[in-house]
Amino acid sequence: MTFTLKIKIQLLCGPEIAMGPGKADLLEAIGAHGSISAAGRAMGMSYRRAWLLVDVMNRCWREPLVETSAGSSQHGGGARLTPLGQTVLAHYRALQAGVAAAASGPDRAALVDLLLDEPKASQKD
C-alpha cells in the first residue's frame, strides 16, 4: 500500500501567500544564482512569474526579503537575499522539518493501518 501524506505550509499576509514551499525554493535559487531571472530559469518559470512572487514576498514582510540591483547595457543586474530574507528562509525550512518529523510519528502509522489501498466502489461495499 502506498500512503501519501501531503502537508504544505503557507504563511498568509492578508489574502497573499507571504511564504510557501515554492517561494522558499525561489529564495534559495536567488541565493544560489544571484538573479531573479536565473533563479526563475533554474526553476522552469518565467522571469515575470518569479518577479511577481518576489514582489509579493517583499510586500508582505517588515522589510524586503530580496534586494535587486539595476543592470546596465554592459552588465546585467542582480539580486540577493537580505538578512531578513535569509532569516525567514531558515525559519521556514526549520518549520518544514519540524512538521515533517511530526508527520512521520505514531499518528501517521496509526492512520496508515486504518487506510484502504483504494476507495470502495460505493459506501455500501
Question: Describe it for me?
Answer:
There is one protein chain. With 125 residues, this protein is an alpha+beta fold. The chain has one domain (19-113): Winged helix-like DNA-binding domain superfamily/Winged helix DNA-binding domain (Arc Repressor Mutant, subunit A, Orthogonal Bundle). Helix content is 52%, strand content 12%. The protein has five helices and four strands; from the N terminus they run ββαααββαα. The strands form two sheets. It has a two-stranded antiparallel ribbon with strand order 1-2. Strand 3 and strand 4 (78-81) form a beta hairpin. Helix 1 (21-33) crosses helix 2 (36-43) and helix 2 crosses helix 3. The longest helix has 21 residues, at 83-103. The chain starts with 10 loop residues before the first strand and ends in an 11-residue tail after the last helix. The mean pLDDT is 92.
Can you describe this structure in just a few lines?
With 125 residues, the protein is an alpha+beta fold.
At the fourth CATH level, what is the homologous superfamily? Winged helix-like DNA-binding domain superfamily/Winged helix DNA-binding domain
CATH class call: Mainly Alpha
Report the strand count. 4
Number of helices: 5
Q: Uncertain runs with pLDDT below 50, 5 residues or more?
A: none
> Could you tell me the radius of gyration in angstroms?
20 Å
